[in-house]
Amino acid sequence: MRALAVYPNKEVLYAASLLGEAAALAVGDSEVQAAAGASTIYRVRGDPRDLGLRAGAVAQLAKEFDAVVMPSTKSAKTLGGYVAQLIGASFLVDVIALGVEGGAVAAQRYVFGNKAVAAARAKPPVVLTIAPGKFTGEPPKGEGKVVDISPQPLPLPRPASVEPKASGGVRLEDAELIVSVGRGFKRKEDLALAFDLAKALNAQVGCSRPIAADLKWLSEDHWVGLSGHKVKPKLYLAIGISGQPQHIAGILDSRIIAAINSDPNAPIFQYADYGVVEDLYKIVPILIKKLSELKR
Question: According to the model, what pLDDT value does residue 157 have?
């Protein structure tokens, strides 16, 4: 089986190699470097943000491949859905395990808010996106040949302008310790308590959906949950977070989940390994003080 890695990186290339020979599509020189190890690198000159150009390239190459493998980003999912419809392929998103069975692509993905795993088999052609952090093996080694192609761009909607998104410079997917905040905090200024605790623990700060999406107290790169970041730290400390299913879906891979909430019936306690039923404004300063004393 042959697989084409689109938006190539280490995880995408490794996932593609699980299906067989892995080639890559690279739009721009930076993606050529990211595609190192692919058997063949199809290079396209142009703007990597141009979905129409990338869609034209994938459509041109797809007939030579059994599967197209991409990361689970918003752009890749948009591209994947369009291309799958165009070439008559099955489209699988957020795949967590991948292989080949009897000439078909065998995949697994979380369903029901990460509470169950669904197994799927699809005959080629298949377009799929992989969930972050699930394909951490080594990608193929070797020097693949670079082939320049000039695809015809497809008429996809194009942005009128591009502006940088506000970011706090956080990569929660890589964090080993996360202190996460929710609606239990009464004011934006009170989040300083969580940041002080995170500093004492050498942790990153995350948040539930309302903090980032509704109140906009933190940027979206702090957002943990089904629509935000899915994380797998050694410790996830949820402070003032009730524990709605959308949030729980993003933290189930955590090694230890601890929670602080004044409501003993908060759903978060059903998933927590450790829980404290207390007002966060009482317990968090105590934690900061004790941790500071331990560092002296």
Answer: 60
